[in-house]
Design goal:
By secondary structure, the protein is α+β, with helices and mostly antiparallel strands. It has two domains: 55 residues, Orthogonal Bundle (434 Repressor (Amino-terminal Domain)); 113 residues, CBS-domain. The chain contains ten helices and five strands, in the order H-H-H-H-H-H-E-E-H-H-E-H-E-E-H.
């Protein structure tokens, strides 16, 4: 159990490089009040502590744009499945988005291919076996949201100004654990 003291708040604030004035403005109190809290001259209300901690926690959040891969490899729905498989094997990836004329239409994953092995994949088009599209998040979205999505899908696409700019996979999340 962590007890939030004025000393702890000061340490966290300084660790994040936030001045007392900026923190005060963010939670709508005076800088003098923040100084008194940090000096443990006043006991802040629970709501004030919650506001302070939410500001300091927000600074810790990794944004999707910080870990996304920008070199997105995609296939068109008219490509043969063997072309998608070739790209996946060559690049060591386990999923690939299906995009045509800047429209994101679906996805192909290793699971998709394995589940369709009974078909003649040399002749089968991507459009015939593609699965639903990967979800799209903003480049400013917290990595916590991306982690939740990745519990259910193979990848998450990242957009900025309504344009796909990156992709995040489970291996990108694992890479954070260095």
């Amino acid at each position: 159990m962590v007890i939030i003291t004025g000393k702890l708040i000061k340490e966290l604030r300084e660790e994040h490089g936030i001045s007392q004035q900026k923190l005060a403005e963010a939670i709508n109190v005076s800088q003098a009040h923040i100084s008194k809290i940090e000096g443990e001259k006043v006991n802040p209300t629970l709501s004030t502590v919650n506001k302070i901690m939410s500001i300091l926690k927000e600074k810790d959040q990794i944004k999707s744009k910080e870990i996304m891969k920008t070199n997105i490899v995609s296939v068109k729905p008219s490509h043969r499945v063997t072309e998608a498989t070739e790209w996946m094997r060559k690049l060591g990836i386990s999923q690939i988005p299906v995009i045509d004329n800047n429209l994101y239409l679906g996805s192909i994953t290793e699971k998709t291919i394995i589940n369709n092995m009974e078909k003649n994949l040399r002749r089968t088009k991507v459009r015939d076996i593609m699965e639903k599209a990967f979800p799209i998040v903003s480049s400013e979205e917290s990595i916590d949201v991306v982690k939740l999505l990745l519990e259910h899908v193979q990848a998450v696409l990242v957009s900025d100004n309504q344009k796909i700019v990156g992709i995040i996979t489970k291996s990108d999340i694992l890479a954070l654990m260095k």
